Amino acid sequence: MTDFADLDALAAAVGTELGVSDWMQIDQDRIDTFADATGDHQWIHVDADKAAQGPYGHTIAHGFLTLSLLVPLSNQATTVGGIRMGINYGLNKVRFITPVPSGGRIRARVHLDSVTEIPGGLQAVRTVTIELEGADKPACVAESIVRYLK
User: Fold this and answer.
1) What is the pTM of this model?
2) Where in this chain does the record put each MaoC-like domain (predicted)?
């Protein structure tokens, strides 16, 4: 984890890796809860018997479940002090590359691509790579925009 004292320290880190989160297990209960919250009950996510006969041989997490964990995982990788708040401002690009199996473990690797001054703070563009333990390719890669306000 990288802890920045303030926005100046963050701005000085452009072009570097900010940190890596802890591993998080994605169990079937989390997948089912996400399905209930979103109304997306596609069998590949929630029906273990049918999914066993499908393309992956088991249930997989929703891509948007993996994406939704970007914030808490990124917050484990880096913090910024001296701010009033950080705001998730959106995403420029998202790709779901490798499915996350039920029981799989993911973590976030955060790279600071750029910072831009905005009224009252900085806007940071970060590439967040959600790694899947044991996989050759990441589960997800997202270009995330965060606004840090003083």
Assistant:
1) 0.95
2) 12-118
